[in-house]
Amino acid sequence: MKPGDKLFDKINSAILECKIGLAVISPRYCESYFCLHELALLMECKKKVIPIFVDIKPSQLRVINNKNWTLEDHTRFKLAIEEAKYTVGLTFNSSQGMVTSASDIIIESLKKNRSSCSIHTCQLAKFAEEIKD
Questions:
Q1: SUPFAM superfamilies per the record (predicted)?
Q2: CATH number for the domain formed by residue range(s) 7-98
Q3: What is the pLDDT of residue 81?
């Protein structure tokens, strides 16, 4: 992104173009309008989402009642969080370090989508493989 770019336009267009979304869900994730908007858009667009639960269990996820959010946004966010709770993901406990199989799962998902992926996704898969080696 460059100075002057419209944040929501860039986020929305990137999500619409992506094949896979990684949602890194932390204890304060459900307080962030931006995080919840991105997750909701990924789910609404039926993208494959790999949730990574960092220091939180899926059953602990709750959308807060923020009076600055519209009822429509709150409903979207709640539906997206509920879907994320029941999506097989990865867990990460920051006191114990990263799950070693996380990169394998992400790389495999990227490889499966390589034939129909954008150049950015393919570059990400190649980069992830290089880091792993």
A1: Toll/Interleukin receptor TIR domain
A2: 3.40.50.10140
A3: 97
Nearest to 49 by CA among 92, 81, 2, 97: 81
Angle between helices 71-85 and 33-44 (to 10 degrees): 70
Successive 10-residue mean pLDDT values, the chain, 133 residues: 76 88 93 95 94 92 94 97 92 70 61 52 48 44
User: Would you please indicate which residues are annotated as catalytic (active-site) residues?
Assistant: 38
pLDDT attached to residue 105: 60
**Rounded to whole angstroms, how far apart are CA atoms 29 and 123?**
27
Dihedral of the alpha carbons of 73, 62, 39, 74, in degrees to the nearest 10 = 0
Phi, psi of 85 (to 5 degrees): -60, -35
Three-state SS annotation for the chain = CCCCCCHHHHHHHHHHHCCEEEEEECCCHHHCHHHHHHHHHHHHCCCEEEEEEECCCHHHCCCCCCCCCCHHHHHHHHHHHHHHHCCCCEEEECCCECCCCHHHHHHHHHHHCHHHCCHHHHHHHHHHHHHHC
Task: State pTM to two decimals.
Answer: 0.72
